[in-house]
């Protein structure tokens, strides 16, 4: 992501806020880029709160969710898959990561939680 202080969506007090959903009847390249930069920077800020590697791999106490590493990989995988479906990317970026982070069932088959 971008540095939060230069990211689209930062207000006059330096607080980064989520941009509104794009109007799909009037999408521009710059608007799409701004929306991506904003959402990706917020995503990175969320995971920056996890200190060290252990919180990424530790299963939650309740056992109902995956370790955070799944969610860290799942979101970029969705972006890549959408770009491939749209024909923007002709081939996988990393076929192995895309396959394991694509769905929870595939992740479960390689990681026991």
Q: How would you describe the overall organization of this protein?
A:
The protein has 113 residues and is mostly helical. It has five helices and no strands. The radius of gyration is 16 Å and the shape is flat. The model has no long low-confidence stretch (mean pLDDT 87).
Structure at a glance:
The chain is mainly alpha-helical. Helices cover 50% and strands 0% of the residues.
Write the layout of secondary structure elements.
Layout: H1 29-48, H2 54-57, H3 68-85, H4 95-102, H5 104-110
Helix pairs in contact: 3-4, 4-5
Mean pLDDT score, rounded? 87
| SSE class | mainly alpha
Distance between the termini: 29 Å
Computed over alpha carbons, the radius of gyration is 16 Å
Low-confidence stretches: none
Multimeric state: single chain
Provide keyphrases for this structure.
single chain, 113 residues, mainly alpha, 5 helices
